[in-house]
Amino acid sequence: MKAHFLKYFALLAFLLLPLSSMGQGKVYTKSNRLADFPTKTTKVVLTGQPILDALLKAEFTSRWRISPYEFCDAAEFEKLRSGTLYYFVHFASDDEFTYMYLSKGGPLGKNTDPLKKAMDVVNIPISAAGTPGSDELVYLPAFIDMIQEYVLKAMVSDRVAYSGIKAIMRRNKRGKTVCESESRGRELFLSEAPNCIVPVVIKPSPDGPGRHQYNMLVSTDNHILYSFKKSRL
Questions:
Q1: Which residues, in sequence order, are bridge partners of residue 230?
Q2: Is there a single domain that holds both residue 46 and residue 127?
Q3: Span 62-100, pLDDT tens digits
């Protein structure tokens, strides 16, 4: 009889183990880790470049609406980034591009608690590597709004959370005029022309064979992303 009950409990434990693992694993998904986003302060990291920083302050003050926010400098960012109190909007570059990142603060390392470790939430390429120029900064309002749309959707969908910025693309262009000219598109974007979609092309400098570029299609009035492609030059 005792052996019978031992077998019964062993079988029950085996059957319940996957459910326990699934429940525990859910806690560690990206969407679940973003659940605290609306209640935590997002630190917008200034660059030390006066024109860019003035624009960052103006656009975040007028556009950011999904969490409390504050501005900080690079030194404060380095001091706070390994803590778990803040999210950060900051810039980082690789060999070809500069990206706007939204990151969750936290420690790094193999033995770090998965619920507390740092996490890159999403990034958008905004210019060739280095300080963004005036042509790219025209689209800063759209980049900010796209990050906000992504976060709102990623908090409730792991599919969005793990797919990056392309997950917010919309396909239906009905009622929109699509502009193919970069220079004309920049003018339409600046004037917030209604019902227009314009190209945003991010190229490396210098460009050449073997390098890449990003091509986006963005609406001028509400900054919806309609296309996002990375292609080899």
A1: 214
A2: yes
A3: 999 999 999 999 999 999 999 999 999 999 999 999 999
